[in-house]
Design a protein that fits this description.
Pnp Oxidase, Chain A, globular, three-stranded antiparallel β-sheet, mainly beta, 12% helix, seven-stranded antiparallel β-sheet
């Protein structure tokens, strides 16, 4: 099968997300200028540089009460900071609950029963007990093709690593089993890893 996206795919569901998979989930916590907290998962997320450490996530839809975007980007525009919480398998239901298009006055931490903790380098909350948290200061917000598509880039200013995930100085993802996004309604979980040496 071959198709050009501009012509449509002719399938019951869009296969694009199923092709680019698995994708890590950035569970983005942000705080508005009014002090309100928000928590939402984004699967267009990744690390993009080592020095300084930088990450990105993309928001691709909008809410009526936020104009051209969603709560996360709107808050980051106001305050310039955000945190990325890494999602473990055990928190899949809470993460899914926080994905709803709730009104801007809903605190997803409270709504989903998620513990909240204060970041150390930025004025923002993060998920208490998350396997890892990246505290970030926004470096740029880039408008890309499409009416509501924005890519947020941030520099990591603080890193939290949960103690039980550290084994002999290594951050061991099998200790918490990170959740990844597939296509459609699908997710996957990392329970096994292997190593390969680069050729020299």
């Amino acid at each position: 099968m071959f198709y050009e996206p501009k012509d449509g795919h002719g399938l019951p569901h869009n296969p694009f997300n199923a092709v680019v998979t698995p994708r890590p989930i950035g569970w983005i916590s942000s705080r508005g200028a009014d002090g309100s907290d928000n928590l939402a998962p984004y699967s267009f997320f990744n690390a993009v540089a080592y020095v300084p450490p930088q990450v990105m996530f993309a928001s691709t839809s909008a809410k009526d009460d936020r104009g051209d975007t969603k709560d996360s980007v709107a808050n980051i525009r106001e305050t310039g900071v955000f945190a990325i919480n890494i999602v473990e398998y055990a928190m899949r239901d809470a993460m899914n609950r926080s994905s709803g298009a709730w009104s801007r006055d809903v605190d997803e931490f409270v709504d989903a029963g998620i513990g909240k903790a204060a970041c150390r380098t930025i004025d923002c909350a993060h998920v208490a007990g998350a396997p890892a948290v990246l505290e970030c200061r926004v470096t740029q917000i880039v408008k890309i093709e499409g009416a509501v598509n924005f890519v947020v880039f941030g520099e990591v200013t603080g890193v939290h690593l949960r103690g039980d995930c550290m084994v002999d100085g290594i951050f061991d993802v099998t200790k918490f089993q990170p959740l990844a996004r597939g296509g459609y309604k699908d997710y996957s979980v990392v329970r096994e890893v292997f190593s390969l040496d680069r050729p020299v």
